[in-house]
Predict the structure.
Amino acid sequence: MNTPPPPGDPRPNPAPDARALLKNLQESFPVFGNCSPLAIGIDKQVLARRPDIDRKALRNALGMHTNSLRYLKTMEKATHRLDLDGNVGDEVSAEHRSHATLVLRERFKKDAERRQAQRAAQAAEALARESAQKLSQLVEKFAKGR
């Protein structure tokens, strides 16, 4: 998760720049917009065409892109990588496909655990409210007889 830098930290938060850059890359190059499997070294291709781009922002944008759910799902089934022009490049290795599958499984498992914990917390909260309401009713009932 991207957390903002502490107050007084001279380093700006790179996430907004990286997000804006990624949006720009998605609009400029169909391989980004389509979440196509990117050629290894695509960063060098981008920098060759757009030397004005900050390397760190590009690295962050590529990280966001390649860790996105849509990209990982594409990589799971991909056979070949594409360059910036959409030309077919190297084959996607079985290792890279299985890595995408593993990351997706772990992500779905964490999401399921988070949802389960959230449901348990909501159930406990509802039970606490119900218990407090019953207790209040009992106090009210027995307080009347005095």
The radius of gyration is 25 Å. The beta strands are 80-82, 88-91. The CA atoms of residues 18 and 57 lie 5 Å apart.
